[in-house]
Amino acid sequence: MLQGFVLLRYLQLMMILKTNEQIELMRKSALLVSETLSEVAKILKPGITTLAIDAMINQYIRDHHAIPSFLNYHGYPFHSCISVNDVVVHGFPGKVELKEKDIVSIDVGVILNGWHGDHAYTFAIGEPEKEVQQLIKVTKESLYKGIEKATAGNYTGDIAYAIQEHTEGKHGYGVVRELVGHGLGKNLHEDPQVPNYGKRGSGKKLKEGLVLAIEPMINLGSRYVYTESDGWTVRTKDRLPSVHFEHDVCVRKNKADILSNYQPIEAAEKLNSELFVCA
Length: 279
Ligand code: MF3
Ligand code: CO
Fold this sequence. Notes:
By secondary structure, this protein is an alpha+beta fold. The chain has one domain (7-278): Alpha-Beta Complex (Creatine Amidinohydrolase), CATH 3.90.230. It is 34% helix and 23% strand. The chain has helices spanning 2-13, 20-43, 50-63, 130-148, 156-171, 263-271, and strands spanning 67-68, 80-84, 87-89, 103-112, 115-125, 174-175, 181-183, 190-194, 211-214, 217-219, 225-227, 234-236, 242-244, 247-250, 257-258, 275-276. Strands 1, 2, 4, 5 and 16 form a five-stranded antiparallel β-sheet that branches. A five-stranded antiparallel β-sheet has the order 8-7-9-14-15. The chain has a three-stranded antiparallel β-sheet with strand order 3-12-11, with no helix packed on it. It is globular and about 45 Å long. The model has no long low-confidence stretch (mean pLDDT 96). The structure holds 2-amino-4-trifluoromethylsulfanyl-butyric acid and cobalt (II) ion. Cobalt (II) ion (CO) is lined by residues 118, 182, 213, 215, 246.
């Protein structure tokens, strides 16, 4: 038992590179999450409860022969994380209804054919304040700036620096330090950690075939957060809104391969008149 445990720890501490065949399976997992989020984008409107959204997510995933990976992960009690306004991440779905001007991050994970997909998108219900619209736009931009650095030979710190520079550097937003992106594969969380702040050339060296979940969590105000007594809900200390976007990305030599896809989500977002398109 002990040896098994030590072996498991060891596996989690080394980067696991994927073959091209495995990458294609992971793309299927990531795209199932994209499709799930695009279904969510169709039904979002004021008055809907986040618990109803979570139920829809569970059903959609199971209808597509996959498993919602967040359920029971370290005891997490729902199928998705739904984080409204000042909730940064890991928000519990509940009976509360979404309302005009809310922003809502929806984070979904699946296991399909043994491979994990894990990504997230932040939607605006109705028309939020201009500064909140800008926060959403800039956070999404920062995700792509980070992804540009996910090439072989670069470091996790290069991704981190690009995200921090665009958000904290250019706009003075708060970059959450306590939570980070991660490797992804047969496990939801693999090596390496991918922070959203740091120095260029620091951290782990990236290799071709590494799959990363890159996920900036950016606050309108200060970077400080706390975890509520439920053990999960992470909220900003100053109660100002926070935005979260996440993509699954394969490290390649010249250009990162984004396995998840915002296109179906953005298409549904545009068609839903209850949503405000910020970026
Ligand atoms: N995207 C989040 C993460 O990578 C989702 C995990 S939620 C949990 O940590 F409930 F599964 F922990
Ligand atoms: Co993640």
